[in-house]
Amino acid sequence: MVMNNKFDLYLVSDSTGETLDRIAVAIKAQFKDVNLSIHHFSFIRTKDQINAFIKRCKKNKNSIILYTLVEQEVVNYLKDTALIEKITCLGVLDHLVLKFENILNKKANHVPSGQHVLNKEYYEKISSMHFTIEHDDGQKLETINEADIIIFGVSRTSKTPTSIYLANRGYKVANIPLTGTENIDSYSIDFKRKTVVGFVIDPHRLEDVRRTRLNLITEDRHTNYINIESIQKEVEVSKKLFSLKSIPIIDVTRRSVEETSAAIIKIHEIKHNL
Questions:
Q1: Is residue 60 part of a domain?
Q2: Is residue 1 part of a domain?
Q3: Region 193-200 average pLDDT
Q4: In terms of residue numbers, what domain contains 266?
Q5: For the chain, what is the radius of gyration of the CA atoms?
Q6: Helix (H) or strand (E) holding 229
Q7: SS3 category, 60
Q8: Half-sphere exposure of 194 (CA within 13 A, CB side)
Q9: Is the same domain home to 159 and 226?
Q10: How many CB atoms lie within 10 A of CB 151?
Q11: What is the pTM (predicted TM-score) of this model?
Q12: Where would I find the beta strands (DSSP E) of the chain?
């Protein structure tokens, strides 16, 4: 008997569904040989909404519901309906919230979108995002020392996406591209107080990235930008600059933006004893 290798995963949230998205990505990474189709249902807070997506679940043989709902009446209705329809239904936070209630000896608020309250932390995150966008790609260097984190690296080493990811975590980030002629001292960076990191990458990987970039913008540029010997020199010069200033080096060749950001946060925490 051959098992059906196709499953439909329904992500049901009473908020934006961001938490579920990340969990679903992690699950897919663990079961790469399974055909897992993902369906999003955000801001689900009523029985009518539950009935609507349950109808869709019933159309597929191997449906799985993964939910983050906090209103108990809605949770109970979902679980009861799924049980009747014989649909697997899993709550991501159910057991965690109960355990924390016991540990903290407090009752949970059970407020939908509680993590998205417009509080001080939220506005600080927005401020970090504005700062990071303004200080992308070597801009506004006169206020660079207002950054929490400063990233150096040659062109196309994921400086911008990493900066944006860190900004979303609440860090003010500035990133500066290197061309091989810079004097890092000219930026007047407060190295004692600021977290400064340098990105390096395998030259052959960088050549592929740059060629892909030129193809996307339909530009045929036969310059040192995609010349492997020039790229090797760029990377080597950047490594020497980083070593000269004792700047921690992060090789982004085989790292995702999330992994690179995690490494930077760890460096930042160690530097500031957080």
A1: yes
A2: no
A3: 97
A4: 120-271
A5: 24
A6: helix 228-244
A7: coil
A8: 23
A9: yes
A10: 26
A11: 0.63
A12: 6-13, 35-41, 63-68, 88-91, 149-154, 173-178, 195-200, 249-251
